[in-house]
Specification:
alpha/beta; Spore Coat Polysaccharide Biosynthesis Protein SpsA, Chain A; seven-stranded mixed β-sheet; 8 helices
C-alpha cells in the first residue's frame, strides 16, 4: 500500500440502520430504500476508487467489506466523537490527504473527489468542504488532524456547517467550498433529488425513472415549485441539519 496516496473515508451506518433511520419511502418499500442507500454507498466508494484513493468505511455496526476497503467500527459516545475519531484514525493510517464523505449522497462522483484533492493540494493550510443545499455538508477534505476544530462544531443542528466553517477559520485555516450536492436525510430530499438532479448521474438513470413513476403513483409530488430552479451558489447556505453520516 502506498501510504502517501489519498484516502477516501465513508462515514456511515449499516444499510439496514440507515434505512430504518431515514424512511425515504413508506415502510412497504423498505427494500427499495435499502437499494437506494446501498447504491449511494457504492457510488461513494467507486468515486474514491476512480480518483486513486485508498478506501475506508467507518460504520456503527458490522458492514460488509467492499473490495479493497478497510472497514472500521466507529467509537465514541456522541456523533461528534465518532466522526472525530474516525477522521483521526484514517489520518493515522495514511500520510496522504483524506476525503471524508457520507454514504447518502447519490450525486457524488469521481469528479467531486478529484476536485477536492486538487483544491486541497493548492494550499497546505486549506480545508475543502462540500456543502449540502440544506446547509449541512457532504464532504470534508484535509491534510491534517482537525480534532481541536471539530470539537467546536455544533453537530446535527441547523448550524452545523456555519459552526464548522467558523471553527476552521478561527484556527487560521482557509475554507474552500465545492458545489452543493444533496444528501438523502428525509423523504423530501429523495423527492427533490429525483425531480432536480437524478438525471445528471448516469448510473442512476434507470432507478430514477422508476422512482419518478413510483412517487407519482404514491401521490408524493416532485416538488414542482422547485423543479428547474437554480441550485444555491457555492457557500450560499450556511445552515443545515447534519454533517456526513
Amino acid at each position: 500500500m502506498n501510504v502517501h496516496q489519498p484516502s477516501l473515508l465513508v462515514f456511515t451506518r449499516s444499510t439496514d440502520s440507515e434505512c430504518a433511520r431515514r424512511r425515504l419511502l413508506p415502510e412497504r418499500f423498505a427494500d427499495l430504500s435499502r437499494t437506494i442507500l446501498a447504491r449511494s454507498l457504492e457510488s461513494a466508494l467507486d468515486a474514491g476508487r476512480a480518483a486513486g484513493c485508498r478506501l475506508e468505511i467507518a460504520s456503527t455496526s458490522a458492514q460488509s467489506a467492499a473490495a479493497g476497503a478497510l472497514v472500521t467500527r466507529q467509537s465514541g459516545r456522541t456523533f461528534g466523537d465518532r466522526f472525530r475519531n474516525a477522521l483521526a484514525g484514517a489520518l493515522c493510517r495514511s500520510e496522504g490527504p483524506l476525503v471524508a464523505v457520507g454514504s447518502d449522497v447519490p450525486g457524488l462522483s469521481e469528479r467531486h473527489v478529484r476536485e477536492a484533492l486538487a483544491r486541497l493540494g493548492e494550499a497546505r493550510d486549506r480545508v475543502v468542504v462540500g456543502p449540502s443545499p440544506d446547509g449541512g455538508f457532504y464532504l470534508l477534505a484535509t491534510h491534517r488532524e482537525l480534532d481541536r476544530e471539530l470539537a467546536h462544531v455544533r453537530w446535527c443542528t441547523r448550524r452545523t456547517l456555519a459552526s464548522l466553517i467558523a471553527a476552521l477559520e478561527a484556527s487560521g485555516l482557509e475554507v474552500c467550498l465545492l458545489e452543493p450536492l444533496r444528501d438523502l436525510d428525509r423523504s423530501q430530499d429523495l423527492q427533490l433529488w429525483v425531480a432536480r438532479e437524478a438525471d445528471s448521474a448516469p448510473r442512476w438513470l434507470g432507478l430514477a425513472s422508476f422512482l419518478r413513476a413510483l412517487l407519482a403513483d404514491l401521490c408524493l409530488p416532485l416538488v414542482p415549485a422547485l423543479v428547474g430552479s437554480t441550485a444555491p451558489r457555492h457557500g450560499a447556505v450556511l445552515f443545515g441539519r447534519a454533517p456526513p453520516r
